[in-house]
Amino acid sequence: MGYKRKARILFVSRLGAGALIAQSFAHTLGAAFITARAGACASPACLDLAREIMRETGLEPAAGEPLRMPDDTAIAWADLVVAMDAAADALIAQRPGGPPVRRFPLEEPALAGGDEYRALRERIRARVEGMVGGMRMLENQSEI
User: Fold this and answer.
1) Residue 75 lies in a domain
2) How many C-beta atoms lie closer than 10 Å to residue 104's C-beta?
3) CATH no. for residue 77?
4) What is the Rg, in whole angstroms, of the alpha carbon atoms belonging to the chain?
5) Domain extent for 44
6) Cα(14)–Cα(115) distance, rounded to whole angstroms?
7) What is the b/e burial string over 14-53, where b = at least 16 CB atoms within 10 angstroms of the residue's CB?
8) Model confidence over 65-85: pLDDT tens digits?
9) Does residue 144 lie in a domain region?
C-alpha cells in the first residue's frame, strides 16, 4: 500500500552543516519515504566541509544552500521539524497548529576539523537510519 506521499522533514542546525548532512542522508537512505530540506540559524560557514565529508561516504550531498531560519514558509511546508542542536531548538518554537518539533541533541562543531564532522556525520546517519527504519516498519505493517 505505502504512504500517500513522502513525509516532509525540515532539519535545522545552527550553522547549517548538520542540517545539510541530515538532508543528504534523508534523500539517499529514505528516498522512498522522505522529502527533506535543511535550514540554518546562523551563517552557514561550514558547508564546504560538510559536503566534503558526505562525498567520503560515496553519497552526493544535497544541492543548494540551507534556508535561513526561521522561515515560516518552510516550517509550514514541513510535516516534522528536527532541531539538531540547542541553538536550533531555541529558535524553532513549537507553533500552534504547526508541525511537531523533534530534537536531535547533536552540537555542530563551529569551524572544527574534519574528524569532528566525521563523528557528527555518523551520529546523524544513525538518527536518519532510525527514522527511515521506523517508516519502513510502518509501511510493512500497513501491508499486513
Assistant:
1) yes
2) 20
3) 3.40.50.2300
4) 15
5) 7-137
6) 19
7) bbbbbbbbbbbbbbbbbeebbbbbbbbbbebebbebbbeb
8) 899 988 889 999 999 999 999
9) no
**16 membership: H or E segment, kind and range:** none
Rounded CA-CA distance 64/5 in Å is 23
pLDDT band at 1 (very low <50, low <70, confident <90, very high): very low
Residue 118 counted as domain residue:
yes
Asked whether residue 73 is domain-assigned, the answer is yes
DSSP tally for the chain: helices H, then strands E = 5, 5
Q: All 3 cell numbers of residue 92?
A: 524553532
Beta strand segments in the chain, E: 7-13, 34-40, 67-68, 80-83, 101-103
Q: How many domains does the chain have?
A: 1
